[in-house]
Amino acid sequence: MIRTHIAEACEARDLALLDAVVFVIRTQGPLTRANHLEAWRGVLGDPEVIDPRRELLADRLARRTAAPLEGDAFFASLRVRLPDVPNRLLAYGLALRAATAHGGHPGPAQLPLAQLCRELGLTQAQARDMRLGIMDGMSPVALAAEPAHPRHARVLEAVLLAAGMEAHLTEAETLALEASREDASFLQELTGQLLRRIAFGSQVASPLEALCQRLTDIALAPATLAQRWGTLRLAYCFSHAVGHDLGQQLMLDLLQELLHLGTVEAARATARESART
Question: Which of 36, 62, 230, 274 has the most crowded Cβ, counting Cβ within 10 A?
Fold first, then answer.
């Protein structure tokens, strides 16, 4: 369930990124399926952006049979699929990168780039920093990436939520559950209270839903390859600090998959981190 939910969220985001790129580069001439894919492969050439799913999504977008959204409906759709500033900034950066891939100047794409910036609610300062960064050879992903603090906080929360769902009950809690067995509604309420207490006191209504949301946030946040490796290593450190078990390992395996990190390389990197704890 968690994997499916996150995959759907990532696909919606990735298609929105593709839509933003296509909206801008179509001003540079008719978009056949071939040059459409060529334009996106130019973006994929950045090692920070390589993701095999996006190649498939680009092909899917090029083969769309329904008429594409236009005008207000198009931008409303983009805003829904890109609800956070980092991904909106990434969409703008990828579109700008694609528009300036040949010659370094957006040319006819300048107006749609400005419109995309306005409709996504980006500031002139954000657009300027993205433009200057790309001119300096930086990746749009690196320029759109969040600071380390929110990313690290989400990783810690995910580890604690996973640990909370595997925690053992005290004797008093076990007796309370036993006594409430005949009352389904009370049992459900009590179980929820225990899980909230174990994971985060009373702050989280559903640890499983909260874990799904934190992993989704981590998967969707723009991050460079180095930042993704750092996220996984940090997750392993946190996990071993709270008591690594099967539930934690399953969560870490899923996190590794969501971050698109290779199995062998991840095993080596995280083994080194585990040896330090």
Answer: 36
